[in-house]
Each structure stands twice: as C-alpha cells, then as structure tokens.
C-alpha cells in the first residue's frame, strides 16, 4: 500500500476488487493526490458513491465519512447534505457513466442548475461493465459490446457534435474538466480546482475497462494497445466518424460566478426571519 | 522504488510506461494469484513518476531521491 492509501483510505478496502488493469484506481489515486495538494484532511470531506464499477470500488474506502446513493440518486442525497453541513465541509461524489450521464442525468442537471457545492468525479468506462459489458450512454457508436454484437447503433454523448459537458455548462455548472485516467499532474490540478469551487464541479475521467470494453470493443486485453488507443482518442488526429471526440483539460471555469445553493438558501432564510426580504 | 507484492495485480502499466525499463514481471505468485512486477533496475530510475500515476492499485511507492521534488511536477 502506498502512502496515499495509508493516509486516506481504509486498509481493509485496499487492494480493491477491481479487475487487473482497471483504470478506476488511477482515478481514485488522482483524487487523493488532489486532496493532499488541497490540504484537505479526512474530517474535512464527506465521500458519496453511486452504483456500478465506480460505486463499488470507491464505496466506504475514505477514512472519513462515507455514504452510498442508489443508482443515479446520489446527487439528490448530496443536496440535502449540502444544506445541512457547514459550508467548509467538502462533499465529493464518485459516480460512473450510468450514474452521471444515464439514469442519474436529470438529478445531475438539477444539481448543476442549483449550483450545489459538490465535486462530482464521473469515472466513465464506456458502458455497463460491472454487469457484463452492455453498451451505455458514452459507448462510441459502432463498437461491439455484450448487448450489441453487431456494433452499437445509438450515438453516444461524446460524438456528432454532442458533448455532455456542454449540456452541463448550459445547465449552470461552474467548473468542468475532462481527462483520461492515464494522465498525471494535469488531471490532479483539475480535481484540486474542482474541490476549490464553492459551487457545482464535475471532472469527467475516461478510463479503461480491460475485461469488457478492451477485450470485446478493442479486441485486446493488452494494456499497451489500450494505452495507445486512449492516446489516440485524446489526440487531435482522432479517427473521424469512429471514436468519440474528446480533448483533455478544463472546459469551463466560472468559479464564483453564481451563488452556491446552500449559501443562497441560508442567506434568504436569514432575510425572511429578519423581515428584510423583498417579495419576488 | 518499492512494489507491494501482495497488492500488485500484475496489470503491467508500470512496465509499459517506464522509459528506462525499471520493471519486470516476477515468477512468484501472491495470495491473489498474480505474479507481481518487480523493480529490477532501481538504479536506472529517474523519478519521472509515470509509473506512480499509472499504478491503479496503490502498490507502488517512489521513495527517496527519485521522488523528491517530482510530485506536483509536469508529469
């Protein structure tokens, strides 16, 4: 176990039950590096999780307080917590692509609309991998999966001009970034900024599933080949018409531009109690 | 450079990104049934930390002079 796991994680949860070569641990590690960089202690942050590969591997790993949401509903629980907890207490949520961009999308959009002070780490492995490798909302069109043996017909959220981060920006998110799990310090810095934001932040991580997406979609479990495919995915020379179109980095930084949900709620309540409110 | 023998799942990311071939897969099997990688060329390590950022299982510790000053760098 390395020093990060020793300092921040519960020892009985490490090593995780993730498959060999799963990129989720790379995302998990970058979160901890950002936590370290931000000077956040285990008492300063509450960690919520969703369902699926991401929820399972990160659930209850944090040495501080943890909670688990039902599939796609962890944001609704976080809104309640945000209203109840002191402003300085951070809330971090680790969710998968189904949690974020599928079943949970409506909750996620409303969380962004209200600019709720939470940091969402959306760890995306291009489909429902923990249930056997069915296609999901970001699976690139045309790729073979367990539920699309002739290739997916539906376009994903990351192609044909669509980008899920644009939708979140329109909804009101105040910090958005995207990285591959293979990236180093640049990805850590993005998470640090996301944690620094008083409002709604989301960092989208695309990570490899060797067992399903690699073996079936890319026809290989060889991690060297998978690393090269990811490099190509994030490069400017992306294959037109086949893969999704993504770039790495911060896509939207509007920290401090809108009132945070719980702070605005507290302020409004105080105004009403003191009779200083103006009827809208 | 230390690799935690019991925590390693032998994914091989460390070896695939190391520019100076510090890592090689061993033959001993750990409790999980994997044959973990080992740091066989410690002296060649430049402390670039590519392996550290890539290791998904919290089993790789870059220590001493190799680590100094590189966390938070440009990797």
Description:
The complex is a heterodimer of chains A (280) and B (75). With 280 residues, chain A is of the alpha/beta class. Helix content of chain A is 38%, strand content 14%. In chain A, strands 2-1-3-4-6-5-7 form a seven-stranded mixed beta sheet, with helices on both faces. The termini of chain A are far apart. Chain B has three helices and four strands; from the N terminus they run E-H-E-E-H-E-H. The mean pLDDT of chain B is 87. Chain A binds chain B through residues 1-5, 9, 14-16, 18-26, 28-30, 33, 37, 181-185, 188, 210, 223-224, 227, and chain B through 4, 6-7, 9-13, 16-17, 32, 34, 49-50, 52-61, 71-75.
Question: How are the strands ordered across the major sheet of chain A?
Answer: 2-1-3-4-6-5-7
How many strand elements of chain A?
7
Instruction: Indicate the overall shape of chain B.
Output: globular
- Class by SSE composition of chain A: alpha/beta
What's the Cα radius of gyration of chain B? 12 Å
- Note the gap between the termini of chain B: 17 Å
Spans of chain A of at least 5 consecutive residues whose pLDDT stays below 50 are none
Chain pair sharing the greatest interface: A-B, 33 and 29 residues
CATH topology of chain A: Rossmann fold
Give the fraction of residues assigned to helices of chain A.
Answer: 25-40%
How many domain units of chain B?
Answer: 1
Give the C-level CATH assignment of chain A.
Alpha Beta
Major sheet characteristics of chain A: 7 strands, mixed
So how many helices of chain B?
Answer: 3
- Gyration radius of chain A (Cα, Å) is 19 Å
Architecture of chain B in CATH? 2-Layer Sandwich
Total number of β-strand segments of chain B?
Answer: 4
* H-E order of chain B: EHEEHEH
